[in-house]
Specification:
The protein is of the alpha+beta class. It has 6 helices and 9 strands. Strand 3 and strand 4 (57-62) form a beta hairpin. Helix 3 runs parallel beside helix 4. The chain binds iron/sulfur cluster.
Length: 218
C-alpha cells in the first residue's frame, strides 16, 4: 500500500485520508505560515489540525485529490514523517527569550538542520537542542541531542523515547558552537555508514558502545 501513498502524505488508519506535515524548522511559525495554513484548512475543510510532539503542525484528514493543490497553496516545504532521514530538529527558545537560556538553541538547531537535511540514514532521525541543562527540547531522548552550559555545548547520542526508551550517552562536553555542529554531523555520518538497515541510533549506540564510538570520533 505504501507505494501508493503520494510523497509528503501519511495515510491514516481509515486507509482513505491523508495527513500532511509542513516543514516548520525548530517549531518557528510566522504570520505568513499561519495565514497559509488557515487558508488551506478552511478551503479543504481539514477536520483535524494537530500540534505534534516534534513542534510541527499536522493537517489531518485530507482527501487524495486535495493533496497537490493543498501543498501548492501552502507554499511550504514537506516535513518528513516516514522517510529514512532527518525528520526534525526541535529546539527550545534558548537565550533569545528564556531567562535560563545559556546559548542560542534556535540558531544551533537551524545549523544542524541545514547540515543534516538531504542525508539518508538507516532509520529516521530526530534531534533536540536545548539552551540550558533543563533540556526542555528533550535532548537526552533524541537520536542526537545538544544542550548548552556556561562552558559550552554537550552532545548526546542514541536517545529514544519510543517503545524501548533509552537515555542517550554523552559523546562530548564543553564544545564551542562550531565544534558541536562538526561533531554532531560527524556522528551522523558515522551512523550513516555503520548503522544496520532500520536500526535507530539508540540500538546503534547500544550495539557499538559509547566508548568505541568516542574512540572512532574524538
Ligand atoms: S532548556 Fe533551558 S533555555 Fe531552553 S526553554 Fe528550557 S529552561 Fe529555557
Amino acid at each position: 500500500m505504501s507505494e501508493l501513498v503520494p510523497e509528503g502524505a501519511i495515510l491514516q488508519r481509515d486507509k482513505k485520508t491523508f495527513a500532511i506535515v509542513p516543514k516548520t524548522p525548530q517549531g518557528m511559525i510566522t504570520a505568513d505560515i499561519l495565514e497559509a495554513l488557515a487558508k488551506v484548512v478552511r478551503r479543504y475543510n481539514v477536520p483535524i489540525v494537530k500540534i505534534t510532539s516534534g513542534q510541527r503542525l499536522a493537517l489531518i484528514g485530507l482527501q487524495r485529490e486535495q493533496l497537490d493543490a493543498a501543498w501548492q497553496e501552502l507554499g511550504i516545504g514537506v516535513g518528513q514523517a516516514t522517510a529514512l532521514c532527518l525528520h526534525y530538529v526541535q529546539a527550545c527558545p534558548g537565550n533569545s527569550v528564556c531567562k535560563f537560556g545559556v546559548d542560542d538553541s534556535l540558531g544551533m538547531g537551524a545549523e544542524l538542520e541545514e547540515g543534516l537535511t538531504g542525508m539518508a540514514f538507516p532509520a529516521k532521525v530526530k534531534v533536540g537542542v536545548s539552551g540550558c541543562p533543563m533540556c526542555c527540547a528533550e535532548s537526552y531522548m533524541r537520536d542526537m541531542g545538544l544542550f548548552a552550559k556556561n562552558k559550552g555545548w554537550t552532545v548526546i547520542v542514541g536517545g529514544n523515547a519510543g517503545a524501548k526508551p533509552r537515555i542517550g550517552d554523552v559523546l562530548a562536553v564543553d564544545l564551542s558552537r562550531e565544534e558541536a555542529v562538526a561533531l554532531g554531523i560527524k556522528f551522523m555520518k558515522y551512523y550513516q555508514e555503520e548503522g544496520h538497515p532500520r536500526e535507530r541510533t539508540a540500538r546503534f549506540v547500544q550495539r557499538l558502545g559509547i566508548l568505541a564510538i568516542k574512540e572512532a570520533l574524538l
